[in-house]
Amino acid sequence: MPLHALIFDVDGTLADTERDGHRVAFNRAFADAGLDWDWDVDLYGDLLKVTGGKERIQHYAALRSPHPLSRDFIAQLHAAKNRHYEALLAHNDIPLRPGVRELLEEARAAGVRLAIATTTSPENVSALLSHALPDGEHWFDVIGAGDVVAAKKPAPDIYEWVLKKLGLGPRDCVAFEDSENGVRSAMGAGLKTIVARNAYTRNHDFTGAVLVVEEWAGVDLGAVRRLV
Of 91, 113, 133, which residue is a domain's last? Predict the structure, then answer.
């Protein structure tokens, strides 16, 4: 089958943004709001089982208190976290994972389209790409992010949305992920999926993925085509 597009998750896949990016930004937003919450490295790893930042806040709040936070407060807290995240990216380099840029460049040179399917907000995608891959946002034909779909990963909705925008079927594309929820989402949309583990996802169940590696380095376009 011909390969027409590569679809990438963002956090943990394009770059290791979770531990020293999003986690730190969440904690700074909590402090600003007067909350005595502190998400350490291990706790945050557990919380990553819940996809979506607002959903993660809501989940943790339910564990801490019988009184739910209002949607408005959660939205404000999440917006503050995103501002801290962008500031962190501006002052602390969080590079793309090894091999990512080379794969993106090879795909572009070969006329293979690029897309993003993520639960993170569009602002976070733009912030990462502007610092780690200047002008890179324009490399992607479709960016599916945040609340463009109601059901977050592991639901397949975000991948189905991206495929519809691309005008392609799942057999025309390959997904790139780092987590069990991401694999379930991509496979639920009918996509063959390649995984690069990271420190938070090393022990996840990647059953069904066509390839699981430790890093993207060495995963070139030829290798991807052989898996389609």
Answer: 91
Catalytic residue chosen out of the listed positions 9, 16, 157, 178: 9
Query: Whole-prediction pTM value?
Result: 0.92
Per-residue pLDDT tens listing for the chain (228 residues): 689 999 999 999 999 999 999 999 999 999 999 999 999 999 999 999 999 999 999 999 999 888 888 999 999 999 999 999 999 998 877 899 999 999 999 999 999 999 999 999 999 999 999 999 988 889 999 999 989 999 999 999 999 999 999 999 999 999 999 999 999 999 999 999 999 999 999 999 999 999 999 999 999 999 999 988
**Active-site residue flag, 147:** no
Of 11, 16, 157, 178, the active-site residue reads 11
| Catalytic residue status for 20 | no
Give me 173's structure tokens: 């594309």
Residues 131 and 191 occupy one common structural domain = yes
The pair of structure tokens assigned to 183 is 């694999």
Asked if 63 and 171 sit in the same domain, the reply is no
